[in-house]
UniProtKB/TrEMBL annotation:
The lineage of its organism: Archaea, Thermoproteota, Thermoprotei, Sulfolobales, Sulfolobaceae. The keyword Transit peptide does not apply. GO terms for molecular function: carbohydrate derivative binding; glutamine-fructose-6-phosphate transaminase (isomerizing) activity. Residues 257-284 form a coiled coil. Residues 37-174, 196-335 form the SIS domain. It comes from the Archaea. It catalyses: D-fructose 6-phosphate + L-glutamine = D-glucosamine 6-phosphate + L-glutamate. This is glutamine--fructose-6-phosphate transaminase (isomerizing). Its EC number is 2.6.1.16. One of its GO terms (biological process) is UDP-N-acetylglucosamine metabolic process. Keywords: Aminotransferase, Coiled coil, Glutamine amidotransferase, Repeat, Transferase.
Length: 345
């Protein structure tokens, strides 16, 4: 039930830090399965990541971390999996909140038939995807009613940070702050997110720009606003915007910069380019500010470790979409044309 909240979406965003905590501790307690998964990923010739929508964005964060460490990783949108063949030395990681997404399940079955080892990360027990997997891991976000994935996404990111850190031999201490980083980001950013959401609710189109590990976060922010506020949005690597997208930017065109604290100098230059075209820029920074010399509004959410930046950026991006939808009077829990679980091809 709504328990006094206006919508499941806001309730579930507020549940996201507890969900991240439960996910990380739950996976650590499930150490036998987690160990099996990490061992298989470590031995893999290639890691294929298969998912759809929001789950795909979580997968891209995992992919970015591993690619930077020199691993061979191929992120694949489930419905496009025909473009990549797998083999016996490959390990496939299927990420799906519901565990029932048809595109992801069909990809899994094809890759299994091609001889690959299958690991899944789902948020429910006894779902189809986990039943076909060699190792099934779980996020522990609890049931998510809102069609827009919020706490399940943040939990997937938490799970994938843990898995990538194990794979890369990193010390896990930084994850102890995961819950705190998400909750304090929520409190710190809610006012600014509401303001951005209200301003953007009157616009036709918005860009989300970032660099590096922030690009999948930009993609997720753009998906959220599209699906629940029905505002056209696109996400780009900031450097790519000058190769075409900037043509649309004119006075007051909204551009949201997502700053994970890396590549700050480059982002500052991209921000200047946008401002010189009189764009309406907003900056959401985790850990390190861009500090533009112009009037642009910037909010800084704290991270105790830069690796937690994607977790810290999730609440403001979800809240922007929530407040834009609210301002437009649309129901954030039941966006038109969408189903919580897409069981058709
Ligand atoms: O259940 P899944 O994670 O497999 O769902 C995949 C997508 O349909 C899903 O993430 C969708 O993009 C979200 N509901 C968007 O908020």
């Amino acid at each position: 039930s709504l328990q006094g909240y206006e919508s499941f979406m806001i309730k579930e965003i507020r549940e996201s830090w507890g969900a991240v905590k439960d996910t990380i501790s739950g996976l650590m307690e499930d150490s036998a399965n987690l160990g099996k998964a990490v061992k298989a990923l470590d031995k893999a010739r290639r890691i294929l990541i298969v998912a759809a929508g929001t789950s795909y964005h979580a997968g891209l964060i995992f992919a970015t971390r591993l690619l930077r460490a020199g691993k061979t990783v191929i992120p694949i949108i489930a419905s496009e999996h025909d473009t990549v063949k797998s083999g016996q030395d490959d390990v496939v990681l299927v990420i799906s909140q519901s565990g029932e997404t048809m595109d992801s399940l069909l990809a899994l079955k094809d890759y299994k038939a091609q001889g690959s080892f299958i690991i899944s990360l789902t948020n429910t027990l006894g779902n189809s995807i986990s039943s076909y997997s060699n190792v099934s891991l779980h996020t522990r976000a609890g049931p998510e009613i809102g069609v827009a994935a919020t706490k399940t996404f943040t939990s997937q990111v938490g799970a994938l940070l843990l898995m990538s850190s194990l794979l890369l031999g990193e010390n896990l201490d930084y994850l102890k702050e995961a819950e705190n980083v998400v909750s304090s980001s929520f409190s710190k950013s809610i006012g600014y997110a509401e303001k951005i959401g209200i301003e953007i609710s009157r616009k036709q189109s918005v860009y989300y720009l970032s660099k590096g590990i922030g690009v999948p976060m930009a993609m997720e922010g753009a998906l959220k606003i599209k699906e629940i506020a029905y505002i056209h949005s696109e996400a780009y690597p900031a450097g790519e915007s000058k190769h075409g997208p900037i043509a649309l930017v004119e006075r007051d065109f909204p551009v949201i910069f997502i700053n994970t604290g890396e590549h700050v100098e480059e982002l500052r230059n991209n921000l200047k380019e946008m401002e010189s075209r009189k764009a309406r820029a907003y900056v959401i920074s985790a850990g390190v500010e861009i500090k533009s010399d112009t009037e642009v509004k910037e909010i800084l959410v704290n991270v105790s470790d830069q690796r937690l930046a994607p977790l810290a950026l999730a609440p403001p991006l979800q809240l922007i979409a929530y407040y834009a939808a609210k301002e437009r009077g649309t129901n954030p829990d039941r966006p038109r044309n969408l189903a919580k679980t897409v069981t058709v091809r």
